[in-house]
Design a protein that fits this description.
Layout lengths: L4 H8 L2 H11 L4 E2 H8 L3 H13 L3 E4 L3 E4 L5 H23 L1
Helix pairs in contact: 1-4, 2-4, 3-4
Length: 98
């Protein structure tokens, strides 16, 4: 199944999903409860966000409903995600510097 750029960009459009993806993008697995605690989000909201990230194939479920970065993601799409994560990190750094 081919993933469209629109699906990836839609998944990246929400700040909570970007924050969850940033935690997962370094390669570590996290359970929903960890993500909920770190992002201060309810279980239902976190599950909904993870579903969108899964459907965009940016993450996949690991054992016991733990999530991790999808290592099979096309390199071109991974580059898009890397760029969005870099901009997000840069913008947060600038906000803290002001």
């Amino acid at each position: 199944m081919q993933i469209s750029m629109q699906e990836v960009l839609t998944a990246l459009s929400d700040p909570t999903r970007r924050a969850a993806l940033a935690l997962l993008w370094e390669g570590e697995e996290h359970c929903v409860c960890d993500l909920m605690a770190k992002l201060n989000v309810s279980q239902s909201r976190m599950s909904r966000h993870m579903k969108i990230l899964r459907e965009a194939r940016l993450v996949r479920e690991a054992q016991w409903v733990r999530y991790r970065r999808n290592s099979d993601l096309a390199a071109e799409l991974a580059t898009v995600v890397d760029a969005v994560m870099a901009v997000e990190k840069n913008l947060k750094g600038k906000l803290h510097d002001d």
